[in-house]
Amino acid sequence: MSFSTEALARIAIELQSDIGHPDRFSRLITTLRNLLGCDASALLRYEAHQFIPLAIDGLSQDVLGRRFALQGHPRFEAIARAGDIVRFPADSVLPDPYDGLIPGQESLKVHACVGLPLFAGQTLIGALTLDGMDAHQFDTYSDEALRLIAALVSGALNNALLIARLERQNVLLEEPGGDTTTGIQEIIGLSASVMQLKKEIEIVAASELNVLIGGETGTGKELVAKAIHQQSPRASHPLVYLNCAALPESVAESELFGHVKGAFTGAISHRSGKFEIADNGTLFLDEIGELPLSLQAKLLRVLQYGDIQRVGDDRSLHVNVRILAATNRDLREEVLAGRFRADLFHRLSVFPLVVPPLRERGDDVILLAGYFCEQCRARMGLGSVILSAGVRSALTAYGWPGNVRELEHAIHRGVVLARAASGSDEVVLNPQHFTFDGVATPSVQMNAPPAGRVNLREETDAFQRQVIHQTLEKQNNNWAATARALSLDVANLHRLAKRLGLKD
């Protein structure tokens, strides 16, 4: 069976309309699902030996956050190596990466599955996957007809990748599908706030401006710094990390600027500091608000003139370093309180970025949960890790005071508990596998309530208010002690308390 000219024209129109719009591929997937009568379909791009979902239909939302490495998914490896249409036998023994991820279908043991590799010339750039519950669902469609669809989609995907690279002002375009991002962690999310953040990262990355990255603890400020560096002209040079909060004042100057032999007791040899190591590259100063005032003045001099002096050395060295700094403090308040230099603050905050907290990112929590589930599956050698409907509802309703870091730990802990309870490598995460730290809803209260009878967000907020209030009383109204008792960052506790109406 082949497709009508009208059907092919409809696909072509979907692909060409609003060529830069992110919804274009979602519309395409929906059109293909209706045309082919499949129960689930997905468009994925290929990059760094893994497939990354761009658009899905008929699959759980967390699939968009998952990353399917070839070495862990034999079906995707078969598609990547085939060079042509792959029709998997209905009873194929190869594990299906979507098993448990099609709502209403607990198992995909016998079903129709077709993979269409997508190419730009001879280079693999993506794949289109089609699944149907009827084992003979795609038998009537000829390989030639499916190749025609693959050709249309390949052209559109290649154009989208080229446009994305041009938007990043990358004049020397890499080969599509090349392993240019190997080892790079990406910022997962499709919410408006994250899309805006990604746009701002692309803008500032191409410049030489210093950047101040703000945001609560656990939001992913280091990931933003990595993204800026990797998209900058300095990407081929080092990105050097230094946590200012973990830096004893007695050795801080040496860590930053280095020292010469004999400069102080224990200085038995010359040592390069972080600025020298980062020469022509980028220096990421995490928790910059913790840097002592005495060192703030010396850091300001480097930003102004590019000159450093090793401890114990009279000579100056010139370095070419871009500074990315991060803080979970309000540095404007720190300046007013005299704890942070105003001139350094203004030098750093020419282009400030703020990483949004997880509670303001909507459904991104599900995408991130899917990402962490796939990470756990690969690390622990599991067959699958699936989020139940109850867990997805609970994850969305919870406020996440510890942000992405708290979510990551919760998923990893949940997978360990679920695997231990089931004794199987097919893990399904249920509400009882989650006990969030401190102010979270305990497992006994996380069972999904009957529809229309309980507002889970209101119940969660009420429980948080109660726990914070009780703990605050036990700690004699000491907020810092309360934060320690609840295993929370004190700044995050203050923000949570304000949101819950416990303080002005």
Automatic annotation (TrEMBL):
The keyword rRNA processing does not apply. Coiled coil: none annotated. PROSITE patterns: SIGMA54_INTERACT_1, SIGMA54_INTERACT_2, SIGMA54_INTERACT_3, SIGMA54_INTERACT_4. The keyword Nucleotide-binding applies. Residues 187-416 form the Sigma-54 factor interaction domain. Pfam families: AAA_lid_14 (PF25601), GAF (PF01590), Sigma54_activat (PF00158). Keywords: ATP-binding, DNA-binding, Nucleotide-binding, Transcription, Transcription regulation. NCBIfam families: PRK05022.1. This is Nitric oxide reductase transcriptional regulator NorR. The lineage of its organism: Bacteria, Pseudomonadati, Pseudomonadota, Gammaproteobacteria, Enterobacterales.
